[in-house]
Design goal:
The structure is a homodimer of 105-residue chains. The first copy, chain A, has 105 residues and is mainly α. Chain A is built from six helices and two strands. The first copy, chain A, binds a DNA duplex (30 and 30 nucleotides) through helix 4.
DNA sequence: TATATATGCAACTTTTGAGTTGCGCAAATG
DNA sequence: CATTTGCGCAACTCAAAAGTTGCATATATA
C-alpha cells in the first residue's frame, strides 16, 4: 500500500524520528534506543517513512543509515501554500468587519 | 478526546474540507453534497476539525457556517520551520559531495 | 401548530494501524 | 565455519478511527 506524507506525519513517533534524522542519519537500532518500544515497532515506522520517501536508506555493511529527505518534506510546504494567503489576510478584526458588511447587504 | 492537527489533516476528506472552507464558509450539508458519503460521516470530520480549531462555527438560524481558521493552520508552518533549514542547504549535489568527503576520512 | 429542514449525538459495524512475537537472511566476528 | 549482530518480513492481537443507521433537538415554513 502506497503511503502518503500526510499520514506519515500523523504519528508522533514518526515525527520524532524525522526530527532525529534531520539532525543526523541513524540506524534502526539507534532510533529504537530513543523510544520505549521494540526495534520491530520502530522498523515499521521506518518502513512508512521510507515508502513515502521522507527518509532514504544508506547501506553500510549490515547497518542501514536512514537520512532525512528534505526535498520530500517540501511537499508539505507546497500544500500549505494554498492557505498561506489566508493567514496573511485573515486578521480577526478584518474578518469580523467583512462579516458585518455582508450582513448589511 | 482532544484532537491534534497532524491527525486532522491525515484524512483526505478533511483536507478537502479545509480547502473548501478556506475559499468560503460552508454548512455541513453543503460539504456533504461535495463528497460521496453520508452527511453524518462528513459531520464527524467537521467535529474533528472543529475540536482542533482548524474551523470555526458561525450559527445563523438553523444553519451553521464553518469558517477556516488560518491562525491554527500556522501551527504546521511552525512545525515545518525546524526542517526548513535542511531543505535550504540539502542540495543533492552538495549532499553527495559531503558524503564523499566523509567516506575519505 | 403540524411539518419539513439542518444539525448533532449515540450505538453499532468494519476497516485500519500500532505494537508484539517469531522467523529468516546477510554481514561481521571469533 | 560456527556464532553473534543488524535488519526486514509475516502472522497475530488489540485499540482507534471511519462510516453507517437511528434518533433527538432546534429553527424555519405552511
Amino acid at each position: 500500500m502506497k503511503q502518503d506524507i500526510f499520514q506519515a506525519i500523523a504519528d508522533p513517533t514518526r515525527r520524532a524520528i524525522l526530527t532525529l534524522v534531520a539532525i543526523q542519519a541513524l540506524t534502526p537500532n539507534a532510533m529504537a534506543e530513543k523510544f520505549d518500544m521494540t526495534r520491530q515497532a520502530v522498523s515499521k515506522h521506518i518502513k512508512v517513512l521510507h515508502e513515502c520517501e521522507l527518509i532514504k536508506p544508506e547501506h553500510r555493511g549490515r547497518e542501514i543509515y536512514y537520512h532525512f529527505n528534505a526535498k520530500k518534506m517540501q511537499e508539505f510546504d507546497h500544500w500549505l501554500a494554498q492557505f498561506r494567503q489566508s493567514w496573511e489576510t485573515q486578521f480577526n478584526q478584518l474578518d469580523q468587519l467583512l462579516s458585518t458588511i455582508k450582513e448589511q447587504k
